[in-house]
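sorry for the late reply, my laptop died twice this morning and i had to redo everyting from scratch. anyway the thing you sent over, i finally got around to it. pasting the sequence first so we're on the same page, its 85 residues, then the predicted structure underneath. double check i copied it right bc i was rushing
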Amino acid sequence: MRFPALGETDLLVPLHEGLFEQPMWRTFLARLAAVCGAPFAALVLDGPYAERAIVLSHGAARRCARIAATPPASSMGTSRGTCAP
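ok and here's the structure:
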């Protein structure tokens, strides 16, 4: 059995507990942005029958608002877009 490294648990625990947080996944997104050295982190939740995607974000989200408006690259709704500073 492999035990996660300390750095991995810093992201895994908030990822699992984020569903119960308000706003959802706030701690995970903040830590993900910090680990990546990025000004912005987001989760884009979309499904094949959704009218629009749900964007949960942390950081400079206004510069990347186009992510939710980008049509999906495939029928599964993946590869929605990227954000450049």
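The beta strands are 40-45, 54-59.
thats about all i looked at so far, will dig more tmrw
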